[in-house]
Design a protein that fits this description.
The chain is 82% helix and 0% strand. The protein is an all-alpha fold. The protein has one domain.
Length: 136
Amino acid sequence: MHTVRLAFIGVAWLFLACVVVQVFLAGLGVFAGAQNFSLHREFGYVFGWLTLVLLLLALAGRLGRRWIGLSALLLVLFALQSVFVALREIVPAVAALHPVNALAIFGAALHVAMRSRGLANDRAAAVESVTQAGRA
């Protein structure tokens, strides 16, 4: 289980770093030409899978409801990004939530990454995992 916790921590920080790169790529599309938006789009599709990896690690590591919930939240927020983009022609005002949602993703990712450091040696989390396993 300790290896899964360390993997969760690593993926959480990797995801946060990818969010920062993604914001840079969006800026590149705005300031260096619209042709650069394809980098932003494609990179989003690539690193978006990390949200599923986080959720699977939280489940496999039996990290508890808090970590499973936060991982699921990141997955849902990230999925909404594509929904907002898809609505740009139909409902531009809703599509304009794309950058607002990006702020929510950054905030949630920062929270997960910062708090996950405690999973490396958090005895309380280990006790919670054992307790939940006993209930199953």
